[in-house]
TrEMBL record:
This is Uncharacterized protein. Keywords: Membrane, Transmembrane, Transmembrane helix. The keyword Transmembrane helix applies. It comes from the Bacteria. The chain crosses the membrane at residues 12-32, 38-57, 174-195, 201-222, 229-250.
Amino acid sequence: MRKFYRLKPSLLIPLIILQFIFVSMCSILYYFERDFLGLLLLLISIAIAISIIVYILSDFIEIDESGVKYVTLFKRYEMSWDDVVTVGISDIFKGRPGWSPCIYFTTDTAPVKYVMLDMIGKEFIMLGYRRSAIEEIRKYWQGDIVNVYELPLPHEKRDYTGLSLRDRLLGNRWFLRGGLILGLLWISIAVFLSTRLNNDYLLIAVIILPFALISFGSMAIYLGNWKKLYVTAMPVAIIVTVYMLLSLFFKTTFN
């Protein structure tokens, strides 16, 4: 039996590092301000970071002689090898940068070209493509693996037919990475300036709000599901904005 995280290590590790960066920025903000709101923001950021890390580490697939199991915090799907009809590799994972190919297990006979997280269920399980997973599958699966290859197809050779402009942008790795880097850069600048401009918190809040959405929204896209945007971008943007506005109010009222 072998366990594979649904997200590949090349994506899993940066996401975890991102959470530590987020908590570190809130810690720096609290270090300079040392007020109740700063402490509250720090505690909330720690809670958000822990919840995201626990979520992504609890999202994995187990492959053994009995079949395939997909496990998360709240869901668990199992397929025995007798139930599996098709094992294959999709060309495109819609919603993931670069449309990273995925290994899928299904009870249907038709090959799958596009996959999405919403497809996961009792009759469909998938995980990010990796050669080690293919080797593990071949130990137990005697049939053919549809569209199997040793390395993912080059980006320029993917079939874009029928994809919208939004899906094409999501397929551009640098489009998403650029948004993530830009968001982190501007949030870092805003936190730094907030420690220097004690009378201009409203301006800092306006700076943080859009770029917090970009940064953590990019992370939600990396996770592969737009629905996770409310778990990442919105709470962070709202918390930081409220914190800045309340700080501005207290500083202008009592100083």
